[in-house]
Design brief:
The complex is a heterodimer of chains A (about 190) and B (about 375). Chain A is mainly α and about 190 residues long. Chain A has nine helices and no strands. In chain B, α2 crosses α3. The chains are: A mainly alpha (about 190), B mainly alpha (about 375). At the A-B interface, α5 of A face α1, α11 and α14 of B.
């Protein structure tokens, strides 16, 4: 049950449909994203998530924040990303043109697969729910997103856009839940 | 996009994610601060037993106004100090405050209530806190001379209690009757706590049943019945009362759930307060620092709930967090008290030292709640120090 909750949180925070649209770029393009680009992006995201869950407590200590207060801050970040996604259909920076290898680092690795919302959630949940369970919840959607990106050929854009915006709305709900749990915590 | 996120992160850091600053404080430092507060109250006491109500430490001027409920609370604080420390030096000032209340007693049909001089509307809270003070005096001195008065005050509280445990807040002395339907969110908790202590002092006389009726009302109905907009009402008196009840009964599940909701409320307020600073930016973004009369009540509540959590496994999971928050609130209070060195620059240093002032102004209950919270928190601080 707890892991299922984490899966919902990271589905909303990573937003696979939004990742597809963002990598398609503003103009859209024909061929799919190169495999190496996807591998670099997924690899970078996984490294960032490992760092987030391993260093979660230290990050909070460094910020002089309790886990409960960090939840509220993380909620604000998630809410901002959720609103942005709902408004634009994409969760962050878009690929500037035809996919290149360098796009694996930016924007795919960060901030699309490992973005402000998903990393803030990873830090927060790693302290509250455990490091590796949290990491597992995130990495599932990194891999799913990578797989979809490898298979996607730019079709059903309208459907992806709709799914991405709904996922943005879900992220706002996740943010509200996170904020309430931070406010209601001792 | 990166710039947007950088600005967003900076705003977050200045507001909701501002660093929490909880220093460390020892039990001895808490006692020293509480003692300084008691000494402030003693210095602020007038010849008739009343106290300087509100005082501007920067200008050295006393501000007008008085309130019998706060008078009773401050007097209770003096007795509380003696009861919790074993140092009865504050009893003398407490007795002077008690005399003032005795001079303003309304006695009828076997009950007694204290009222503001010049007013014929009797506030339940003053009598409840007078009774609470006498209960502390009894613990501190083992002097039983006021037992009849305690019972008379207790009977007034029961007179003001409705069948469902709610409390009528005001009594009309001219009409000779409680003002039906009048309510005070403060008085109910004060009366509840006083009744619970009556059961501890005089078991088997029925005070426990009266307490439990009000406990049930507070825990299950009050917030809705009295239109509390963001429940639960932050009621440290109720937390005191619940902790007192654990001395002679087991709390029911609704009372425990209510205690947990109070813990959540006070925990959040303490965390947020620890993010505030005494500078203009913080005042603008996070609001001004809470006055000691407020923070003291948080500490009183956190300590009371911590005591319950230690003995009741249903709240055992938050024992550590309650101790952490209580330690944080205690350290903030100690840090904000006017020290002797700081007071030297004020026009009347003797009325600045030991006080908690916000924007230069202190009110007598700032000292009362802060000292009570700090005295109670010593047990938490000792437990933290002991690991």
């Amino acid at each position: 049950m707890e892991f299922a909750k984490l899966l919902v949180v990271f589905f909303a925070a990573i937003n696979p449909a939004g990742v597809l649209l963002a990598m398609r770029g503003k103009q859209g393009h024909g061929p799919g994203t190169p495999r190496l680009t996807i591998a670099i992006g997924a690899g970078l995201a996984i490294v960032l998530f490992v760092l987030a869950v391993v260093l979660g407590t230290r990050i909070m200590d460094g910020l002089d924040l309790d886990a409960e207060s960090f939840r509220i801050a993380a909620a604000m970040i998630c809410a901002a990303v959720g609103v942005y996604t709902l408004w634009t259909g994409v969760p962050g920076s878009q690929a500037p043109g035809e996919p290149r290898i360098a796009h694996g680092w930016f924007p795919l690795g960060a901030p699309l697969l490992a973005g402000p919302a998903s990393l803030a959630a990873a830090v927060s949940y790693s302290v509250d729910r455990g490091r590796w369970e949290t990491f597992g919840g995130a990495v599932v959607w990194v891999l799913v997103s990578a797989l979809l990106l490898a298979l996607w050929r730019g079709r059903w854009v309208a459907a992806a856009d709709g799914i991405s915006r709904v996922t943005g709305a879900l992220l706002i709900v996740v943010a509200a839940s996170l904020a309430i749990s931070g406010i209601k915590a001792v | 996009m990166v710039l947007v996120w950088a600005v967003g992160a900076a705003v977050l850091r200045l507001t909701l994610a501002a660093p929490q600053r909880c220093g460390s404080v020892t039990s001895a430092q808490a006692l020293t601060a509480a003692t300084a507060a008691v000494q402030w109250i003693e210095r602020a006491q007038k010849s008739d037993g009343s106290y300087i109500y509100e005082y501007n430490v920067d200008t050295g001027t006393a501000l007008p106004g008085y309130d019998a409920v706060r008078h009773a609370g401050v007097t209770m604080g003096l007795y509380y100090y003696a009861a919790l420390t074993g140092d009865d030096s504050s009893v003398r000032a407490g007795d002077a405050g008690l005399q003032w209340m005795q001079g303003n007693l309304l006695e009828r049909d076997g009950w007694a209530a204290v009222k503001d001089p010049g007013s014929n509307i009797v506030e339940l809270g003053a009598s409840a806190l007078m009774l609470a003070g006498l209960e502390q005096r009894r613990i501190a001195t083992h002097d039983l001379q006021y037992d009849p008065l305690m019972h008379a005050l207790g009977r007034f509280i029961v007179l003001m209690q409705d069948e469902d445990g709610s409390m009528t807040g005001y009594f009309d002395a001219d009409a000779g009757a409680p003002m039906a339907g009048s309510r005070s969110l403060y008085f109910t908790g004060e009366a509840f706590w006083a009744l619970t202590m009556m059961e501890t002092a005089f078991p088997g006389e029925g005070w426990g049943q009266a307490s439990q009726r009000t406990a049930k009302y507070i825990a299950t109905r009050r917030d809705e019945a009295e239109d509390v907009s963001l429940p639960p009402w932050s009621d440290q008196w109720a937390a005191y009362g619940l902790a007192e009840m654990t001395k002679w009964t087991r709390l029911d599940d609704a009372e425990v759930a209510y205690g947990r909701s109070l813990a959540e409320r006070y925990g959040f307020m303490t965390r947020y307060e620890s993010q505030r600073r005494d500078d203009e930016v913080s005042k603008l973004l996070q609001g001004p620092e809470t006055r000691a009369a407020g923070m003291g009540t948080w500490l009183e509540a956190l300590d009371s709930l911590w005591r319950i959590s230690k003995s009741d496994p249903r709240l055992g999971d938050i024992e550590g967090k309650l101790a952490e928050r209580a330690g944080c609130a205690a350290s903030m209070l100690v840090g904000r008290q006017v020290t002797g060195a700081e007071a030297v620059k004020d026009p009347r240093p003797q009325l600045a030292e030991g006080a908690w002032a916000r924007d230069g102004v202190t009110r007598m209950d700032d000292q009362q709640h802060a000292l009570a919270g700090l005295l109670r928190a010593r047990a938490v601080l000792d437990s933290k120090a002991g690991g």
